[in-house]
């Protein structure tokens, strides 16, 4: 369904939401976040912001329901692999990498376990929210393993006896440390990215996107 207004999906509440809103504002998009709205209309441009769970953003882009989205590469790549496995549309255009949301997706093991390389993970059970990315990495390494799918509290899985290792997002490393774990392998370095659906958009929308991109370039460079 094509709308006249450019639709941008952003995370409603979480680690990407503030910086994402700040970036749009610095690009000159005026809006007011009030209450629990799903859609917020920009006041000075034909743009609607769609406020959703980050998990929903890749699918909204790949199904062509929204025009643009801001999402962590970790989530984006996991969903793309998942959809590819189910033969669902999984295309998108990466417009630019942003300067926030930086983290790494890492495999971590008990801090006292010996570790020389991926072979040491042979036959282990790995708790994760990112089963597709773990499988891609382990297949590349030729290491057999099993998973334990958890959508939260991944870091307590080894201590709880649910898994031998975990694969989760790390930024400072404090969470791993607090749970008696150490980083063994970094399997993905991630940042927030701006993505577009592959469906052709009206000339007006495409021109607006180009204008936003130019402004974004300036805003990000000014910060560097
Ligand atoms: O509600 P919704 O589904 O929208 O949000 P969410 O809870 O799924 O996501 P959210 O807001 O936690 O994270 C959104 C995105 O921020 C992630 O997909 C990443 O792209 C990015 N990001 C950057 C991070 C982190 N850094 C991060 N440190 N996401 C999560 N973490 C967590 C990590 O899972 C672990 O629990 O922080 C902990 C580790 O942090 P350190 O500093 O202790 O290492
Ligand atoms: Zn989420």
TrEMBL record:
Activity regulation: Feedback inhibited by histidine.
ATP phosphoribosyltransferase catalytic domain residues: 53-218
Cofactor: Mg(2+)
Compartment(s): Cytoplasm
Keywords: Amino-acid biosynthesis, ATP-binding, Cytoplasm, Glycosyltransferase, Histidine biosynthesis, Magnesium, Metal-binding, Nucleotide-binding, Transferase
Enzyme Commission number(s): 2.4.2.17
Reactions that this protein is recorded to catalyse: 1-(5-phospho-beta-D-ribosyl)-ATP + diphosphate = 5-phospho-alpha-D-ribose 1-diphosphate + ATP
Pathways per UniProt: Amino-acid biosynthesis; L-histidine biosynthesis; L-histidine from 5-phospho-alpha-D-ribose 1-diphosphate: step 1/9
Chief location bin: cytoplasm
GO molecular function, one term: glycosyltransferase activity
Similarity field: Belongs to the ATP phosphoribosyltransferase family. Long subfamily.
Function text: Catalyzes the condensation of ATP and 5-phosphoribose 1-diphosphate to form N'-(5'-phosphoribosyl)-ATP (PR-ATP). Has a crucial role in the pathway because the rate of histidine biosynthesis seems to be controlled primarily by regulation of HisG enzymatic activity.
Name this protein carries in UniProt: ATP phosphoribosyltransferase
Species this chain originates from: Photobacterium sanguinicancri
